[in-house]
Amino acid sequence: MRLAMNASAESLQEIFGRLQAAQQADPYPDLASRRRRLLALEALVTENLERIARAINEDFGRRPERETRLLEGFPVLAAIRHARRHVAKWMRPQRRFASRWLLPGRAQLLPQPLGVVGIVSPWNYPLLLSLSPLAAALAAGNRAMLKLSEVTPRTSAELAALLAKYFRDDEVGAWQGDAAAGAAFTRLPFGHLLFTGAGRIGREVMHAAAENLTPVTLELGGKSPAIVAPDYPLRHAAERITLGKCLNAGQTCVAPDYVLVPGGSERAMLDALRAATDRMYPDLPFNKDYAHLVSERHFQRLAAMLEEARAAGVECVPLASSMGVPDPERRRFPPIAILNPPDGLKVMRDEIFGPLLPVLGYRDLDQAIEFVNLRERPLALYLFDRDAERVQRVLERTLSGGVTVNDVFLHVAEESLPFGGVGASGTGAYHGRAGFETFSKLRPVFLQSRWASTWMLNPPYGSRFDRVLRWMLRG
What we know:
By secondary structure, the protein is of the alpha/beta class. The chain is 44% helix and 16% strand. The chain has 16 helices and 16 strands. The protein has helices at 12-25, 31-60, 65-91, 128-139, 153-166, 179-186, 199-210, 234-246, 266-280, 296-311, 346-349, 365-373, 388-397, 410-413, 432-438, 463-474; strands at 94-96, 106-113, 116-120, 143-148, 172-176, 192-196, 216-219, 225-228, 258-262, 316-318, 336-339, 356-362, 380-384, 402-405, 426-427, 440-447. Strand 3 (116-120), helix 4 (128-139) and strand 4 (143-148) form a beta-alpha-beta unit. The longest helix has 30 residues, at 31-60.
């Protein structure tokens, strides 16, 4: 898709300029305005979810509409409704205790909008990862401009048309286009820029934003591990890991990327994974609940990973009894376990973002922790363990963007928790109040009292000044 194929004939600068002018005219939207915009966003989703799900299904070749409603419709509505319920509280100035030296003055933080927020959304969850950050930006009182993914063109066109229908053109703007359009978008002087996508592109986004000293939130990804403790029931762990790996055919930034199991239990884990796959996705070649890969390029990337592992003599085990070979014509890629692959393979170096699942044995929990810590910090970590002491040990000795214990994905679904990465998996966070504060300036304000005594430190300095300063220095 070329830059000229944007839904509007306007330039990026024209759309940005209109949003910026509107924000300057109304720099602190009142509670009613913010709630009205959140209600408009909620109506956009509730009234058009089926239509959007159809567009996503067409872009993927197959993406089950039920899966779209569960993984995108539900969480984006939860985010919007959570913001609408809490925005009045979030807007209030936050009291801070003033130091005794400055009493009876008062200190507070005033949350203020940053201006025009830029949102670069990805293709894998095009509804959720466009409108969830938009909800946070609108709750914080900003205008917003979205760069929608060219990899899902039908969905992007649908969202652009709906945003134009439900919002004034000086409230929200949408932009479609290719990588060149994305690069131009990230060079705009936004009040804040949020990017969700690959780490390589994230570095380019941060570099472009640096031209304007634009603050950036990067939601990237990485190799999120799942650790199964020695005495944890393999059947339950396998069920949750299979679900996390097969939803959206593994095209999820927080999908389990590899599994660490106690040494000697690898075969038992493979059996449990196969049983779970067949229970949830029977007759996989024709199963309507299993998504296709989004593009030929993505299919070929995963096929090359698999071929490299096989060429290296690594055992690759199909997890669906009804389908062991990828189908390039339909871009349907079955889940396949890769048993104890060496570190040098791409499947252990790169984020997989698909239904390949390395399964590796570990000697003891300390070795599993070391294995995770020797790699870049992941976006998510999944621990399957019912021993509270061991759970705490793993939490204290590893670092990741977020953690779910004894399940997958749930720390992302909880709106009261911030969602974000650390190190190579991203910087900054949003969701719930964290999203409101990401898109706000928590402006420090000190309110001086008419009874202030700071005059005692005024020049000319003399004995009174010396006495007061000695008292202050003693604490």
